[in-house]
Q: What sequence folds into this?
């Protein structure tokens, strides 16, 4: 451990100051500007995600219309789009548990994968994916109960 550097000592670029108590200071104005900037970037990205999701859903609807055929895969895909829009809405409004929606989306995506590929998949892979859905469901319940004020987890 190095001895403390006396005040007024000029340090070269290679000298290290060993002061674990050093914390950078940020003024209130800097903090407000940074927070506003990050908030703006978050909002722009949320709008972009919503627009991309709506575009994907419209593309899917056009494909369904052109083929005159609706399959279970199409319905599950629309649920995925709906859940993404719901997640964007929760993030944008700040109402609700935002971290639950990605879990629901993952559960729906895994269910869609099982439905679409179960004939070609090895049976143990189906069990693994179903177990992953169960694990995600348990995680969602635990997170929901922990995040509710006034409940004991």
A:
């Amino acid at each position: 451990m190095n001895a403390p550097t006396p005040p007024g000592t000029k340090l070269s670029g290679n000298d290290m100051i060993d002061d674990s108590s050093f914390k950078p200071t940020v003024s209130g104005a800097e903090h407000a500007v940074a927070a506003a900037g990050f908030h703006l970037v978050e909002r722009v990205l949320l709008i972009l995600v919503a627009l991309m999701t709506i575009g994907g859903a419209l593309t899917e609807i056009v494909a369904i219309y052109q083929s005159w055929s609706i399959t279970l895969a199409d319905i599950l895909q629309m649920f995925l789009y709906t859940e993404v829009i719901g997640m964007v809405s929760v993030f944008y409004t700040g109402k609700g548990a935002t971290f639950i929606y990605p879990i629901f989306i993952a559960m729906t995506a895994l269910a869609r994968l099982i439905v679409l590929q179960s004939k070609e998949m090895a049976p143990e892979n189906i069990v693994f994916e179903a177990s992953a859905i169960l694990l995600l469901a348990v995680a969602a319940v635990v997170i929901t109960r922990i995040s509710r004020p006034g409940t004991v987890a």
The chain has a mean pLDDT of 84. The longest helix spans residues 28-67. Residues 66 and 72 are 17 Å apart (CA to CA).
